[in-house]
Prior knowledge:
There is one protein chain. By secondary structure, the chain is mainly α. The chain has one domain (about 75-270). It contains 13 helices and no strands. Helix 3 (about 50-60) runs antiparallel to helix 4, helix 5 crosses helix 11 (about 240-245) and helix 7 packs across helix 10.
Amino acid sequence: MKKIIRFLLITFLWSWVFFILAIDSVSDVLDQNTFRSFLFYFFIGIYGPSISAMLVSLMDSKSVFLNLLKKFLNFKIPLKTAFLIIVLPIFFVFTGIAIFSLLDGEIGQMEFIGIYTIPAILFAGIYAGPLGEELGWRGLLLPELQNIFSPLKSSLIIGVFWFCWHIPLFWAPVGTLISGNLSFVSVLTYFAIINCLSIIITWLYNQSSNNLWTAILFHLFINAGIGLVLFPELTQSANKIHLYSSAGMLIFTFYLLTSRQLLPKKNTRSEYREG
């Protein structure tokens, strides 16, 4: 438990300090220069969870630190899991697009030319949240929690802290789906999204024999919103569609819960015993 507390303290201290500096840099005026300053502090802050995981592991022992790095170098993802990493985010986005078309109007014509932009979107996106966060949330915190709690309870604990970690960015120009657009409904929806994603990532992580890249890549595909590249006219409504996509996440999370997919597994509770 001490390792968990140390991880959370360092993560929040590191990230919130830089998030606040980022927000302060654009507090007077938002222009090209101040936005560059914002991005500088913002990207440093994003790496709080991963930096914290490495520091806490080093505090523990050299072997635990090396074990964490070995997880980062394991790229063997089961084919079924790799399929879900791609398909589930697309399903969520298309659910959001369908709801948008019902509630907000036209979605425009589908254009397959946007597919060619996917590699660039993924390459640019992986350096933000996925690499900055997942070494911490799923590389260290999830295994530690699953040594104590069930996968579901571990997911919900991470979900609450993951949501709270984003709170300063609610007042930033970018950084979350609801940045600069706060309301009770938007915050509640974002809380639901974070917790659904936490549950789904835990399930995928455990299904892949605790492969860290499962979490990294799923996080990447969620952030990228690949389905939206087929509908260029929806670019300005991307955040709203991502919020609407919570419906698809809730449906899939309900399936995981009712089908008892999050029952404890022997291998998940022993992963970090040597640490």
